[in-house]
Design brief:
This protein has one domain: Arc Repressor Mutant, subunit A, CATH 1.10.10. By secondary structure, the chain is an alpha+beta fold. The protein has five helices and six strands. The radius of gyration is 16 Å and the shape is globular. The strands form two sheets. A three-stranded antiparallel beta sheet has the order 1-3-2. A three-stranded mixed beta sheet has the order 5-4-6, with no helix packed on it. Bound molecules: zinc ion (ZN) (3 copies). One zinc ion is lined by residues 68, 70, 80, 93, 95, 97, 108.
Amino acid sequence: MSDKKLIGDLLRAHGLKKTPIRLEMLELFMDHDFALSASDIVAKMTAGHDRVTIYRALSSFEENGILHRASEDGQGVKYALCGQHCPDESHSDEHAHFVCDECHHTYCLEDVKIPEVKVSNEFMVDRANYTLSGICKECKS
Ligand SMILES: [Zn+2]
Ligand SMILES: [Zn+2]
Ligand SMILES: [Zn+2]
């Protein structure tokens, strides 16, 4: 199946309209095995799109279970594609992420579950981020 067909199916499955900008953005995510920030996307898109449009598309992808937040640094939030099973509105892909000290890319460690942490019931935990850092497979070789 081509990426274009795959992306069209993905948008349809999550109730989003197929627009050229959404297709191009998701194609970028499929072409990279690491997470992308809004500025990465602006830099990689063929046509010049304003940031507001990109941010708006990113948040609708996040709200609809297509992208999740992989990491956050001084450059902003980096997003990655969700696995097949993310329902809309709530993300079920709670895995660890890896941030490389050399290239600063963020990778999803889909097989690494976030360890369960006990928190006193004064706090209502909503999300957990679990980030490992070091040297990634690309930089190691
Ligand atoms: Zn997700
Ligand atoms: Zn690296
Ligand atoms: Zn991830």
